[in-house]
Amino acid sequence: MRKKQLNHTEQAAIAGHPYARHNLALSEDEDGRLDKAVKHWIIDSLDNLKELYKDGDISKDDFTTSSW
Question: Which residue from 9, 39, 44, 55 puts its CA 20 to 30 A from 15's CA?
């Protein structure tokens, strides 16, 4: 059953569902694949930042002047 659930989560993540990508990252982390989990979290974060930029909530300068 877990394999089928993971497959559906992967398909949803590929389709762009943000919660699915987050859940997939958590699953990868739980299974000891931190490298894959981090990639999913990075993609998720970039997608969120793109939406903020598209909505005008952040600018390109926010990226270059950030002190992260």
Answer: 55
CA distance 29 to 66: 28
Q: For residue 62, what is the enclosing H or E element?
A: helix 60-64
Measured in degrees and rounded to the nearest 5, phi and psi for residue 55 equal -80, -5
- pLDDT for 26 equals 93
Domain that holds residue 22: 2-59
Enter the DSSP assignment of 31: T
Give pLDDT, residue 28.
92
* Residue 16 belongs to a domain: yes
Please report the pLDDT score of residue 44 as a whole number: 87
Count the Cβ atoms, other than its own, within 10 Å of residue 64.
Answer: 7
Q: Is 12 within a domain?
A: yes
User: Domain tally for the chain?
Assistant: 1
